[in-house]
Write a structure and sequence with these properties.
By secondary structure, the protein is of the alpha/beta class. It contains 10 helices and 8 strands.
């Protein structure tokens, strides 16, 4: 039985989809077979990030309406263990009961299933999630993003695993110079347990162009630490200036 991870955020622009793709790539480096499911109907982007946008014919909407699952699963361009079910190109209401059946099937076929939810607090599809789903909220260090993460925390459904958050686009200088709160204050304000910190990184911004992250980059190292923690390993958090 595989692990299901749901990635969400309170507001757009936090880098949520980049984090979802980066975690998938990191898990593939750990030898895991990973399926990404893009749930942002009408605003899909994971197909671009994985370099398969020109290959997409069928999507999640088709699967929920009777298309064979395997027809809508596409291998990533640069990662043999990463696959994607794209969201529909135009906005369509996705069925929760049908989606739950899809999750049961892919959970048996993949080591890791990563769900990239739309930003915001529309939680209608969350009722389809399996009880052991690991919820991850992505936020930035700025006060608006942290407050929005707290709103998400207050409204999340209850699952067997406690929700966690990833602090993305982190710059130690802005913490040190007092522009943003310190990390402990951000944790307290968000209401989540901290899973990991990802630095502000041009390598991550270039994923839609390169469809990859250089393994030695700070961003890739941070994502790998996060994936190892999700895999059950104990990985210490580096000092802020080394993140």
């Amino acid at each position: 039985m595989g692990k299901t991870i749901a990635v969400t955020s309170g507001k757009g622009g936090t880098g949520k989809s980049t984090v979802a793709v980066g975690i998938a790539m990191s898990f593939s480096r750990l030898g895991k077979k990973v399926l990404l499911i893009d749930l942002d109907a009408g605003l899909r982007c994971l197909d671009l990030m994985l370099g398969i946008d020109e290959k997409v014919v069928f999507d999640l909407w088709d699967v929920l309406n009777g298309c064979p699952l395997e027809d809508a699963v596409y291998p990533a361009a640069n990662h043999e263990n990463v696959f994607l079910i794209p969201a529909p190109a135009k906005f369509k209401e996705l069925s929760s009961p049908a989606f739950r059946e899809v999750l049961k099937k892919v959970n048996a076929d993949y080591d890791i299933t990563i769900l990239d939810f739309p930003a915001g607090i529309d939680f209608r599809l969350y009722e389809a999630l399996l009880p052991k789903t690991q919820m991850i909220t992505v936020c930035n260090p700025d006060p608006v993003s942290v407050r929005d993460a707290a709103v998400v925390c207050e409204n999340l459904p209850t699952f067997e695993r406690a929700p966690v958050f990833i602090l993305n686009k982190f710059t130690a200088d802005k913490i040190r110079n007092g522009i943003y709160q310190n990390i402990d204050s951000i944790i307290d304000s968000s209401g989540f347990r901290l899973l990991g910190i990802i630095p502000e990184s041009s390598d991550l911004l270039l994923i839609p162009v390169r469809h990859n992250v250089p393994n030695r980059s700070k961003g890739a190292k941070a994502l790998l630490r996060i994936s190892k923690r999700l895999n059950g390993d104990w990985v210490p958090l580096p000092r802020p200036k080394r993140i």
